[in-house]
User: What shape does this take?
Amino acid sequence: MATEAAEAAELRAYDSHPEVVAWRVERVRTQVDRLCWAGIGLGLCFTMANVQHFAAAGAAAWSLPWLAAWLLDPAVSLVLLAILRAEQVTARYRLRTGGWARAAKWAALAATYVMNTWQSYAAGSPAAIVLHSVPPLMVFVAAEAITDVRDKLTEAVTVAFTDATRDHPVNSPATVHRSGEASTGRRRGEKRRKLFGDYLAEARAAWTPGVVVTPAWVRQVTDCSRGLSPRLAAALAAELDRDTEHGGEVDQ
Assistant: This one.
């Protein structure tokens, strides 16, 4: 139970580390990006078929006008995707793109909407208008919302890191990195879990006459957790006291 408690304390130290907290928000931001890109991609695929039908204007299948009609929607969509990709990078660093970039994005979205719904408005079919309006409108809304969402998630990363640093100032990145390297080395070099007795034997071997046994010294020589070091220091001090009582000076 003492070993499990020490391991739990070490895990909680990592769990509350500012870098870990910020990384979790970063992971959410990545998931949001992927979902938004998937939705935009599916919406543009839907509009591509409608725009091709609009541009072909009844041309025979596989004729030159019919084939050329497939190029219209990608020509508009690629411009839109390029602008969204640029905004993805600028939003990460909380920078705003210029007015021309925003105008180009709106123009691409407006052109996609008009080409998707023109025939439906001409036919006067409310159902067709709704059917062909939803995908381009969702692409438009997602394209506008994703920039603000990225900006707020970037701000959330900064806030999460700052709050975690204020609540846990002792967990500096260098300390956790060194502790992680030591823990990794122990896992690679040993086939079984390091027990209380193993830590005690390691501290006993490192002790020399004149050294004051403290929890900090125990952590330094054994690399044990902060929760386990007081018990190890007490146990080692008790052993040293018994050895002194029975044998005078402790043999090294």
User: Anything to note?
Assistant: The two ends are 32 Å apart (CA to CA). Residues 170-178, 182-191 have pLDDT under 50 and may be disordered. Residues 110 and 140 are 8 Å apart (CA to CA).
